[in-house]
Write a structure and sequence with these properties.
There is one protein chain. This protein is mainly α. It has one domain. It has 6 helices and 3 strands. The radius of gyration is 22 Å and the shape is elongated.
């Protein structure tokens, strides 16, 4: 399989996996936890059934169409970048995480008018979901993949350099 096709396949599998796991966990929470109830999962981690009518941290509640358009444009920008750099090592992973997370939350917005959040940390941190975690990890990984591997020129194999002795002999 060609590297570009393999990158698209891998990104597609990550997208599918993130959306499926995100939607499954949200439905499980909705069917097992009453809104407002908190269940201890681990020390310092609670499960809740919270509805986010805004964007991150509840910002811009009631602006579903504008939020969906902005998210859609960001996804299109990411797809354009991915299309041009699909052979960059590991670029498929953050692309899949980001698009999968965005789609998971967009599906909630379109279906319910809000996003289901269910993981709650202490100290007033707002609840979040697996799509949010996927987006956060995807952004961090994207920065690492794009910046950590260097520029496009560094991704290609360097041209062979003439040996020092041979260069002097040819100049004489």
């Amino acid at each position: 399989m060609r590297p570009v096709a393999l990158a698209w396949l891998r990104a597609g599998l990550v997208i599918f996996g993130v959306v499926a796991l995100d939607q499954f966990t949200k439905r499980q929470v909705e069917h097992s936890i009453v809104p407002g109830e908190e269940r201890r999962l681990l020390p310092g981690v609670q499960l809740v059934d919270a509805r986010n009518h805004g964007v991150a941290f509840g910002i811009l509640p009631g602006h579903h169409i504008a939020v969906t358009i902005v998210i859609g444009l960001a996804v299109l920008g990411l797809l354009a970048y991915f299309t041009r750099h699909a052979t960059k090592p590991l670029i498929w992973l953050p692309t899949g995480l980001l698009i999968g997370g965005a789609l998971g939350n967009i599906l909630d917005r379109l279906r319910d008018g809000s996003v289901t959040d269910f993981i709650k940390f202490p100290l007033g941190w707002p609840p979040f979901n697996l799509a949010d975690a996927s987006i956060t990890f995807g952004v961090l990984l994207l920065v690492f993949v794009v910046e950590g591997t260097g520029s496009e020129a560094e991704d290609t194999e360097p041209e062979p350099q003439p040996e020092a002795g041979r260069e002097r002999a040819e100049c004489s």
